[in-house]
């Protein structure tokens, strides 16, 4: 019978996002997806990075609470908050709101806080980090912004632009320590966390 103590912990992505799922698939590790049920409303007066970190950990903990006590799992929670001039930018949810976001951000630098949490259910401990990406948007006319939104309908992403798709054409420059952070799941940081948790990411423990 295999020694269960040598089996790597179950890896769970606490997200419904297809973009995060596609990013995690790059690491070539088996994982499950469990969608957390939490209130993602920012708290009054909360700083953007605090919101992102709080929600990333809340997502991971919410999923971990549904696991059996005997099962060790590493749960990945992530959240992203965009901000410019101190204002938080959420997911638009509609064409009109997305257009208003892009109009407000054109020609400006926007900060994207991509928070990551790796929660270990066996030790009830969490590793967290906020990876910041600075993005400068091009100063484009309304017709170009409207055409982009109708082509890609990015109404489910903070900032209304998918940098992994046609949205890259809206951007003038991207500055970050992790190229995957802007898409929503910082893989460099996650790799460090998994190795620190003794997960056999590279075939060793």
Automatic annotation (TrEMBL):
Native source organism of the sequence: Paraburkholderia atlantica
Molecular-function GO terms, alphabetical: nucleoside triphosphate diphosphatase activity
Annotated Gene Ontology cellular component terms: cytoplasm
UniProt protein name: 7-methyl-GTP pyrophosphatase
Cofactor(s) named in the record: a divalent metal cation
Enzyme class label: hydrolase
UniProt entry keywords in alphabetical sequence: Cytoplasm, Hydrolase, Nucleotide metabolism
Task of the protein: Nucleoside triphosphate pyrophosphatase that hydrolyzes 7-methyl-GTP (m(7)GTP). May have a dual role in cell division arrest and in preventing the incorporation of modified nucleotides into cellular nucleic acids.
SUPFAM superfamilies, sorted: ITPase-like
Active site: 79 (proton acceptor)
One BP term from GO: nucleotide metabolic process
Record-linked InterPro entries: ITPase-like_fam, Maf-like
Keyword S-adenosyl-L-methionine appears in the UniProt entry: no
Protein EC: 3.6.1.-
Family membership noted in the UniProt record: Belongs to the Maf family. YceF subfamily.
